[in-house]
Design a protein that fits this description.
Shape: elongated
Number of domains: 2
Distance between the termini: 68 Å
Radius of gyration: 20 Å
Order of helices and strands: HHHHEEHHEE
Strand content: 5-15%
């Protein structure tokens, strides 16, 4: 039972930390982000199992995480408020070709980060973008301006 309680506490803590750290796709992790995830995983393992290296202990911890994940997904499906807390809301980064600086700062994104994402989607200039939105999953969606008639 002790392992299950530790798993619940650490699951909630990790969920909070990942939400606080911000949105990033796995493909855009920097080497420092990757090392942090590895170190964090090792630290969590030590806090979860302490000196328990048994198979049954591992099964309890993994099962508890799985149940918590399924429960969180179900609760997010059933409750809009919980989904917003867990996943966040989309954030507008460009509005009619103009950068929304407070949102960029809040999300810790630079204009270079945004320009790189634009180049990957073959968009040349901020002026060509009607909207840029940082989605809840960490991807940036661009909606280009319509050509003038």
């Amino acid at each position: 039972m002790d392992l299950a309680i530790r798993a619940i506490v650490l699951y909630l803590f990790v969920t909070f930390v990942m939400r606080a750290v911000g949105r990033r796709e796995l493909s855009s992790l920097t080497p420092v982000d990757l090392v942090l995830l590895i170190v964090m995983g090792d630290a969590i393992q030590q806090g979860l199992t302490q000196d328990d290296y048994s198979v049954s202990g591992a099964v309890i911890v993994v099962s508890t995480f799985a149940v918590l994940q399924v429960f969180s997904a179900w609760l997010g499906f059933r409750s809009h408020k919980f989904r917003v807390v867990l996943e966040g809301r989309p954030v507008v980064l460009i509005d009619n070709g103009e950068l929304v600086d407070p949102n960029l700062r809040r999300q810790r994104l630079t204009t270079d980060d945004l320009a790189e994402e634009m180049r990957q989607q073959q968009i040349a200039s901020f002026d060509d973008v009607e909207w840029a939105i940082l989605e809840a999953n960490g991807r940036i969606s661009f909606i280009e301006k319509s050509p003038s008639n």
